[in-house]
Structure to design on (930 residues):
């Protein structure tokens, strides 16, 4: 709300400045507040402010020479980035979430232990809009580590067997037996019944071939199948900056990277470029993991008793910004130049600004410095040496285009266009077909900014002369970044409308134009529907005096261009074309009850009771044919409408007895009753000021208006505002809720009486609190909850079909009281009573007349129960104060008691709610008595 108020205030100030310019003769026709609001809401100005539009128009109207009409309006240097549509596509890259265990694309939390990583993060946050660089290469070891010893089934034929391996030999044919044979320390396998067979040093493929050829010679009639069932393990030792150092058993086919992965991967400070394998005897193999990732090195195979050492990381440098792979890179002795580090980062992207590369450096543990490098000066800067903890930032090119002009506003194809040499306005807007309907041809505007000061200049021109007439003087030449604005005529001229309602294809408001007539408006609204009443239409017109004038005309003659009926329209006129159904009298009759197709039927000529029953499919077996009820509406003295009923013997009517087979009239309602007791009877009660009060049998879905009609309608003494409609289902629901509340409060009260801690400050105060609780519970137990449902009654003709003409249910009851002459005040006042209603007295007057609230009253919770059941509370404020409102007969003022039940706030709140329910019920009961 605060920002909205500021925006509204700024807009009012802007309009005030425009009115001031107009009063001085500095502006032409003004942009009115309504038009300015339309400019902002519909965007017809293409983003330019109403103030600049008005100033540009004033320049065009005062200056004949366009070249001299240039005026510098704003001298502040603009933010050029905001002038390019592509700037909106910039998105901030958020750092990935962290987790303790590696996962795809996420950085494990142990990297926080890297001092250089923390340093780079601190240099970026929070202003930088680039992703924080992560150490390069470490993600290779993320995820689930490989198995220490893979399944033997994955071994190739050239695998060399050694002690610890196990083969499986299946003999089948004459003998069926399976042998599992381990390679012994001497390189042999002990084959049952044959003896030792030496296989160490042979490949897996050679062993299979040897056994398949040799065993059948020793054991006739058998065939041989050989598989490798278990691999030996190779012990290696992991030391240095690794997550799980120590002795590790790996596969004989394991490589260095697999062993590092089994060890949990390098720590944050572990080197990836100087990993060492120390073999028994002192031989050292150095492994550069970066070269392996680049495909320039092999992953060495491990041998038994190898020692794998991961030392501390060497020099590091971070590369951020416009490179293909931002990250933190470990530097080796052969790649400490800028060219080498950028190569590790994948090189710069096309969006990078070669003239804006920057190196942030910590110099000799003494101070920080920033070095700017222009990569365009190659190769000198590519050889620039990079030091430990350098941060290299490659910035992006400045936003915007150098060869673009923008077309905005009331135009068919707005957007950015290429600026070609010698380009003019007519090259951008090639002809009238590019302009939208209702374009303003007398005025368009070029907004231009030129270096070095980038001052804002407005260049107004005549759009019609430039585009339609091809006038060289108005057809201005364009420059880079020019913004050409085309406007709608309705920004400078009043936009009037007429409204067409009723039986037309597209009802609603349409634009008014000069010389518009009734026929023109009807055609603009899509023409008439088939249900249009052609004999008479209505025209509502507001005169200059402010009064409304109603004019009628013949619709058919207006369409035929009859001058007397095809009336000339004025702004704000409202046309109404009526329908045939609303202009013709109702020709329907209704039948309900025990017929096969109850409902409304068209009243035809000489239609009788038997015809209506026949149209409804005949009577059902449940029908009580000897006595149906025909309800007919009659007008008394041309004013009052009354409903009369007549008993009809359907059986005699179907036989043609004219006494019962009577002629029907419009709106006749024939009710064919069911046989008593045939089905469950639905009943409703209507009491009070109706002509025939009592209990009525209703049919499913019957409306309240029908019940009132059958009861003869309201008497002249009926007070409709005080009517009370009750529904049994609502009463049962409210009673169940109240009983559950009483049970909970009884349990809380019992706990309070048994708990010794209930004595808070004194025994006397605790006992008083319990007494209040008991008294309120007794009051709740005696409450008889009504099932009241608020229904606002109206005189029957207005009530039928309205929002409160609800469908009845079994057990519903309606009480229509006579007009009361009193207002009641109940609750915690000095003299609860009923007082004579007086039209001039307010809520506060009645409250004072009964002595006002007592000392124990809850003055902040006073409320009013209207005669129709609506509850009103004090909303506060001078205009909305409940105490200043005037009351109506039957209204009740309720003053609740302020409850003090001690320290148990939950019980206290629940009791206050229950007490208010009880007082409301008492107020309703009081209305019943009245």
């Amino acid at each position: 709300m605060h920002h909205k108020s500021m925006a509204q205030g700024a807009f009012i100030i802007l309009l005030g400045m425009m009115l001031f310019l107009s009063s001085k003769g500095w502006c032409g026709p003004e942009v009115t507040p309504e038009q300015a609001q339309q400019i902002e809401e519909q965007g017809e100005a293409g983003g330019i402010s109403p103030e600049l539009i008005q100033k540009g128009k004033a320049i065009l109207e005062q200056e004949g020479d366009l070249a001299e009409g240039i005026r510098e309006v704003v001298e502040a240097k603009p933010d050029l980035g905001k002038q390019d549509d592509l700037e909106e596509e910039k998105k901030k890259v958020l750092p990935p979430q962290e987790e303790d265990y590696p996962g795809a694309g996420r950085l494990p939390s142990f990297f926080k232990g890297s001092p250089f990583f923390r340093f780079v993060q601190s240099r970026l946050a929070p202003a930088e809009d680039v992703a924080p660089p992560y150490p390069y290469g470490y993600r290779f070891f993320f995820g689930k580590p490989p198995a220490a010893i893979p399944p033997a089934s994955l071994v190739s034929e050239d695998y060399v067997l050694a002690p610890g391996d196990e083969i499986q030999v299946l003999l089948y044919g004459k003998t069926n037996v399976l042998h599992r044979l381990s390679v012994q320390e001497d390189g042999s396998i002990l084959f049952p019944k044959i003896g030792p067979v030496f296989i160490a040093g042979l490949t897996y493929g050679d062993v299979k071939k040897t056994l398949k050829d040799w065993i059948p010679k020793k054991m006739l009639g058998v065939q041989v199948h050989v598989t490798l069932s278990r691999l030996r393990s190779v012990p290696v030792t992991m030391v240095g900056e690794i997550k799980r150092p120590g002795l590790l058993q790996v596969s004989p086919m394991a490589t260095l990277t697999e062993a590092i992965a089994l060890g949990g991967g390098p720590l944050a400070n572990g080197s990836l470029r100087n990993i060492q394998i120390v073999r028994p005897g002192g031989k050292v193999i150095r492994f550069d993991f970066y070269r392996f990732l680049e495909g320039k090195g092999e992953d060495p195979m491990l041998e038994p008793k190898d020692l794998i050492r991961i030392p501390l990381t060497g020099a590091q440098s971070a590369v951020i910004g416009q490179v293909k792979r931002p990250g933190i890179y470990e530097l080796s002795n052969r790649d400490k130049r800028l060219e080498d580090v950028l190569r590790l980062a994948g090189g710069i992207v096309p969006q990078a600004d070669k003239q804006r590369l920057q190196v942030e450096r910590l110099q000799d543990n003494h101070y920080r410095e920033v070095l700017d490098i222009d990569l365009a000066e190659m190769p000198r800067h590519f050889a620039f040496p990079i030091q430990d903890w350098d941060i290299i930032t490659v910035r992006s090119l400045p936003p915007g285009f150098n060869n673009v002009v923008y077309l905005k506003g009331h135009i068919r194809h707005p957007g950015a266009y290429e600026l070609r040499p010698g380009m003019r306005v007519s090259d951008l807007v090639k002809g009238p077909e590019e302009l939208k309907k209702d374009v303003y041809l007398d005025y368009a505007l070029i907004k231009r900014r030129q270096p070095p000061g980038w001052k804002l200049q407005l260049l107004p021109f005549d759009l019609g002369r430039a585009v339609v007439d091809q006038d060289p003087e108005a057809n201005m030449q364009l420059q880079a970044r020019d913004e050409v604005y085309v406007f709608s005529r309705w920004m400078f001229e009043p936009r009037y409308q007429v409204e067409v309602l009723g039986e037309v294809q597209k009802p609603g408001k349409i634009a008014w134009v000069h010389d518009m007539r009734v026929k023109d408006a009807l055609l603009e609204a899509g023409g008439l529907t088939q249900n249009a009443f052609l004999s008479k239409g209505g025209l509502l017109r507001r005169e200059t005096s402010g009064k409304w004038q109603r004019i009628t005309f013949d619709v058919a003659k207006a369409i035929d261009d009859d001058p007397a009926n095809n009336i000339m329209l004025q702004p704000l006129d409202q046309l109404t074309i009526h329908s045939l159904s609303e202009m013709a009298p109702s020709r329907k009759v209704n039948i309900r009850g025990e017929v096969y197709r109850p409902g409304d039927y068209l009243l035809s000529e000489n239609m009788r009771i038997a015809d209506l029953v026949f149209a409804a499919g005949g009577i059902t077996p449940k029908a009580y044919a000897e006595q149906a009820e025909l309800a007919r509406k009659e007008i008394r003295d041309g004013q009052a409408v009354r409903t009369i009923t007549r008993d009809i013997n359907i059986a005699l009517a179907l036989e043609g007895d004219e006494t019962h087979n009577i002629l029907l009239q419009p709106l006749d309602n024939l009710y064919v009753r069911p046989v008593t007791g045939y089905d469950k009877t639905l009943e409703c009660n209507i009491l009070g000021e109706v002509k025939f009060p009592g209990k009525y049998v209703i049919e499913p879905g019957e409306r309240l208006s029908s019940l009132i009609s059958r009861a003869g309608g309201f008497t002249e003494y009926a007070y409709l505002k005080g009517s009370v409609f009750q529904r049994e289902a609502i009463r049962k629901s409210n009673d169940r809720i109240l009983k559950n509340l009483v049970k909970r409060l009884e349990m809380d009260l019992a706990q309070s009486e048994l708990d010794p801690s209930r004595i808070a400050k004194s025994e006397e105060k605790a006992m008083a609190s319990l007494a209040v609780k008991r008294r309120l519970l007794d009051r709740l137990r005696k409450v008889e909850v009504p099932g009241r449902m608020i229904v606002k009654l109206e005189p029957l003709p207005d009530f039928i079909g309205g929002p409160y003409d609800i469908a009845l249910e079994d057990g519903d009851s309606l009480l229509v009281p006579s007009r009361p002459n009193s207002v009641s005040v109940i609750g915690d006042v000095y003299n609860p009573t009923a007082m004579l209603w007086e039209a001039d007295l307010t809520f506060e007057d009645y409250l004072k007349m009964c002595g006002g609230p007592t000392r124990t009253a809850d003055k902040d919770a006073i409320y009013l129960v209207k005669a129709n059941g609506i509850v009103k509370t004090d909303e506060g404020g001078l205009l909305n104060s409940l105490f200043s409102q005037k009351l109506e007969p039957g209204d009740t003022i309720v003053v609740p008691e302020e409850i003090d039940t001690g320290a148990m706030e939950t019980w206290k709140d629940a009791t206050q709610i229950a007490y208010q329910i009880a007082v409301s019920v008492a107020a309703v009961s009081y209305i019943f008595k009245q």
Notes: The chain is about 25% helix and 25% strand.
